[in-house]
Amino acid sequence: MGGMDMQSKKAAMDHLDHVSYPATKEELVKACDNMSDVPDADKKWFMDNLPGGTYQNSGDVRAALRM
After folding, report:
1. pTM, entire model
2. How many domains does the chain have?
3. What is the largest CA-CA distance in the chain?
């Protein structure tokens, strides 16, 4: 995942496992904004790179981000 180091990727992915699915990009971005342990630059990368749509689970999000 370009732009994020391994620790940031793990922190972001751990958070995605706690989101209620199905979830839209907008809902995921909102959840991402509350990830206090993820650097702002990584949150921006997530918002900029996640395609629009509705995701059924965290695996769908990982696949969309090619993680």
Report:
1. 0.77
2. 1
3. 27
Residue 1 within a domain: no
Report the C-alpha gap between 8 and 38 in whole angstroms: 6
Domain of 27, in residue numbers: 6-64
For the stretch 13-66, pLDDT in tens is 777 888 899 999 999 988 877 777 778 888 888 889 999 999 999 999 999 988
- The span from the CA of 35 to the CA of 33, in Å, is 6
- For the chain, the three-class secondary structure string (H helix, E strand, C coil) is CCCCCHHHHHHHHHHHCCCCCCEEHHHHHHHHHCCCCCCHHHHHHHHHHCCCCEECCHHHHHHHCCC
Residue 43 lies in a domain: yes
